[in-house]
């Protein structure tokens, strides 16, 4: 029986446009799931693919796709939006507060000070993922500062 955590890997590996996956493996359970996914030669069913596509659409607003060129140019101040959203993901999604803190604290003091001064409404308007950028950026700053 295929573990449900293998499905995202299988979708990627079955896509001929993608050549590799870089996956963090901080513990043995994740390493074993990744190995099992790599060794599983069965393709996903259309039903599996459809469910994963639906899930991706439902959860898109919780994941920054890294398209900084869209959101960052709409903010008057120098704020690396996609980087800070990634720090938030490390902290909340991956439970890796240490990495989030280290990266956040490497931001110049001026950048950190600008976080609460910026207007993110236009960035949110153009975000293809429909992320509530201002709310997440400010919350991340509060939590990691």
SSE inventory with pairings:
Blueprint: H1 7-13, H2 28-39, H3 46-59, H4 68-71, H5 81-92, H6 97-105, H7 109-114, H8 121-126, H9 133-144
Helix pairs in contact: 5-6, 5-9
- Which stretches are poorly predicted, pLDDT < 50 over at least 5 residues? none
Helix segment tally: 9
Globally, the shape reads globular
Q: What's the helical proportion of residues? A: 55-70%
Distance between the first and last residues' Cα: 45 Å
**Rg for CA atoms:** 18 Å
- DSSP strand content: under 5%
E-strand count:
0
Features:
mainly alpha; 9 helices; 145 residues; 57% helix; globular
Structure write-up:
- This protein is mainly alpha-helical.
- The chain has two domains: 4-62, no CATH class; 68-144, no CATH class.
- The chain has nine helices and no strands.
- Helix 5 runs antiparallel to helix 6 (97-105) and helix 5 crosses helix 9 (133-144).
- The longest helix has 14 residues, at 46-59.
- It starts with 6 loop residues before the first helix and ends with a helix.
């Amino acid at each position: 029986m295929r573990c449900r955590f293998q499905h995202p890997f299988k979708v990627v590996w079955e896509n001929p446009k993608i050549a590799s996956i870089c996956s963090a493996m901080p513990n043995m359970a994740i390493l074993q799931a990744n190995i099992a996914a790599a060794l599983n030669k069965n393709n996903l069913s259309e039903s599996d693919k459809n469910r994963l596509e639906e899930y991706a659409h439902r959860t898109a607003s919780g994941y920054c796709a890294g398209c900084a060129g869209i959101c960052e140019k709409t903010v008057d101040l120098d704020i690396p939006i996609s980087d800070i959203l990634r720090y938030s993901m490390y902290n909340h999604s991956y439970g890796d507060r240490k990495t989030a803190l280290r990266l956040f604290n490497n931001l110049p003091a001026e950048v950190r000070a600008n976080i609460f001064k910026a207007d993110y409404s236009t960035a949110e308007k153009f975000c293809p993922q429909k992320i509530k950028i201002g709310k997440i950026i400010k919350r991340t700053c509060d939590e990691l500062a």
